[in-house]
Every structure is written in C-alpha cells, then in structure tokens.
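Practice problem: Flavohemoprotein
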Amino acid sequence: MYREAANKQLAATFIQVTSNDNNVAFEQELNDINNSVAQGEFKTHFRDVDGFIDSKQLQEYVDANTEIYICGGNSFLNSMIMQLQTLDIPQENVHFETFIPRLSFSASSQA
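Answer key — structure tokens:
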C-alpha cells in the first residue's frame, strides 16, 4: 500500500510497530520507497523503547479525513481501532487486515 501511494505521489505515512530495532521488516525497501517521494514518511515505533503505541502518539499523524490501513494480529488490530476511536476517527476511514503467523496456522491446523 505504501508503494502504491508513493507511485501515485500521495501523501502517506507508514508506521511500523515492532518489538525493537532488530525486527524492522522490509526496512530497506520501505526506506527506498520513502526516499523516492516528497510526501512520504516511514516511521518506526519500538515497543522496547516507546511502549505500546497509543492515541497520544497517533494523533500527530491522523485527523478526521485520514484514511487508515492497519495490518497485524487480532490484539494489535483491536488496540489500534480502540485508540483511533478515542481520536474520533470515523469508522469508515479505518481499514484493516489481520494476519496469522504461518507457523501458528500450521501448528493449529495439524491438531
């Protein structure tokens, strides 16, 4: 999604929440995308330093017109949706996709 927004020269912010600075998925690719556009911003949020991301931290990136796309596990999605609700982000502006780690799915499907 971030690449698509960049290709269309749309203003976009990509915030990756991860456990620490050793676990930034696709870091080089995201930095490359970020460096190719004037209106792009790639941010990382490290839980070991910054704790869990909350509405106070999100509010600088969103307003009532922001389209928000969230991808993560169920507990992360629920947390983000709740934080966005406290910021009065319209529900129709929040889009999400859940993912289940492949090993978790494989282990549970064999039980």
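Discussion: The chain has a mean pLDDT of 89. Students who identified this feature from the tokens alone can consider the problem solved.
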